[in-house]
Specification:
Blueprint (H helix, E strand, L loop, with lengths): L10 H12 L1 H12 L9 H14 L3 E4 L5 E6 L2 E11 L21 E7 L6 E8 L3 H24 L4 E9 L8 H13 L6 E4 L7 E5 L1 E10 L14 H19 L2 E2 L3 E2 L1 E10 L9 E10 L5 H18 L4 E6 L1 E5 L5 E5 L1 E2 L2 E2 L5 H12 L6 E4 L5 H7 L4 E3 L14 E3 H19 L12
Parallel strand pairs: 3-6, 3-7, 7-20, 8-19
Antiparallel strand pairs: 1-2, 2-6, 4-5, 5-21, 8-18, 9-13, 9-14, 9-17, 10-11, 12-13, 15-16
Helix pairs in contact: 1-10, 2-4, 3-4, 4-10, 6-7, 8-10
């Protein structure tokens, strides 16, 4: 053996860049195949087979699927050490109206030279891009993670020692935002396989920056009750829409401005996104009005307190108006995987934040510096499966990806091929540095 890679000279990390460049043709082809394979939530089976096939071809030590259809690939180090989970989701949102794609086929994965935002969205670069649905959420990041495992296999073949386990893990049904895939993986599949994990790297879009958290999200359903009457005699009923108006006003004008702020994640927020009423006929005064609220919250806020804020407004209005009746609850959804595994899940994703001075974040930063990448930090506006690993399990979690957030879920969905190559080297370097970092890199998150 050539010796422990953790104490090798900096040229080892130059090797990572060289190996990643050599893999460009293969990883670009693989990314195209992923984009050309539709995988709407609940329909990820074909993509799962493609991931398994590629990891087996690359020589992963172990590749398998679980009963829910999640995909796993393991690369084992030559010495014991931590297990770093590299997480991607396999599903994507609908392509929408193909006429909005400016001539590109949403599933064509066409490559051309185009004008695209640079890392910080401060200027435009002329560079090679792959176009198509999920190019930026998250199929290019998925490909970069899988090929980072291939880099480690190449290093091992070259005679380098390294510690721990690299675990690629592709989950089902992330887009519906109930973490059903991630919860199944961590709470059921890993224990059944005798596996665990010590930290997680998410492939969600970061523009090659290190992302360190995001606000939590809870979806609430408020139902305001009234009494039906004929539309020609509204005085005989209680119009639930009218009864909902003061509640909406208090949420908008009093609650929202009072919400707390995190210096990194910004202010908590609340948004009324859907209003429905029943019976919903023109000639009938409605006796139920349903308000769907999207509440984003920061670390330190408890979900029970978030619910209580709405309940307090309801109680205040009920005390002033004997005809006002309403209730609030967390919304739920039934999610069925492509293999038939069913979950009824709350729409509740915890907030989380891994500090920049946490040992795992510092190891990741050192890794990117070692492969010549500028270290920058960021935080997602949207939610990720980090809500499970960091928000619930309190395991150190970061995001690192070639994809750019501003293109996700849009008809301009695309990814830079040069960023994919850089992300291969960056992901492999993060694994090497993190597995050598010592116990400080795996401290439980606190807030």
């Amino acid at each position: 053996m050539m010796g422990d890679i953790g104490i090798m000279k900096p040229e080892v990390f130059q090797n990572l860049n060289e190996i990643a460049v050599e893999m460009k043709t293969d990883v670009v082809r693989f990314t195209q195949k992923l984009i050309q394979t539709p995988s709407i939530s609940g329909e990820e089976g074909d993509l799962a087979d493609l991931l398994v096939e590629e990891m087996e071809k690359l020589g992963y030590d172990e590749v398998f699927k679980d009963d829910q259809g999640n995909v796993f690939g393991l690369v084992k180090g030559t010495e014991d050490g931590p297990t770093i989970m590299y997480n991607s989701h396999m599903d994507h949102v609908s392509a929408g109206d193909a006429n909005n794609w400016e001539g590109y086929d949403p599933y064509g994965a066409e490559i051309d030279i185009c004008e695209i935002d640079n890392q910080d969205k401060t200027a435009k670069d002329i560079t090679e891009c792959i176009h198509g649905r999920a190019a930026s959420d998250v199929k290019a990041g998925e490909a970069a993670q899988i090929y980072a495992g291939a880099v480690l296999l190449k290093l091992r073949e070259m005679g380098y020692d390294f510690k721990g386990k690299f675990m690629f893990q592709g989950v089902v049904q992330e887009e519906p935002a109930e973490m059903v895939g991630m919860k199944h993986v961590i709470d059921k599949t890993l224990p059944a396989k005798g596996l665990t994990y010590d930290a997680m790297v998410s492939s969600e879009a970061t523009s090659l920056k290190l992302y360190c958290g995001h606000r939590g999200r809870v979806e609430m359903l408020v139902t305001v009750y009234g009494r039906t009457s004929h539309g020609s005699a509204p005085w005989l009923g209680i119009n639930s829409i009218y009864k909902a108006v003061p509640l909406i006003s208090k949420i908008k004008d009093e609650l929202y401005p009072s919400l707390p702020t995190d210096p990194d994640l910004g202010q908590s927020s609340i948004s009324l996104n859907i209003i429905e009423c029943l019976p919903g006929a023109l000639s009938i005064v409605p006796d139920k009005t349903m308000l769907s609220l999207d509440r984003r919250f920061i670390p330190g806020e408890k979900v029970e307190d978030v619910i209580k804020q709405i309940q307090d407004i309801i109680d205040e209005l009920a005390a002033a108006d004997p005809e006002f009746k309403a209730d609030v609850k967390i919304k739920t959804a039934v999610e069925v995987s492509y293999t038939g595994v069913e979950y009824e899940a709350e729409k509740n994703m915890p907030a989380w934040k891994t500090p920049k001075d946490h040992g795992f974040t510092k190891a990741a930063a050192e890794a990117l510096e070692a492969v010549g990448q500028e270290v920058k930090y960021g935080y997602w506006d949207f939610g990720t499966d980090g809500s499970k690993t960091a928000g619930i399990d309190r395991k150190p979690t970061i995001g690192y990806s070639p994809m750019q957030e501003q293109y996700a879920h849009t008809p301009y969905d695309k990814v830079r091929t040069d960023f994919i190559v850089k992300a291969i080297a960056g992901n492999a370097a993060i694994f090497i540095k993190a597995t050598e970092a010592g116990p400080d890199a795996y401290k439980t998150l606190e807030w």
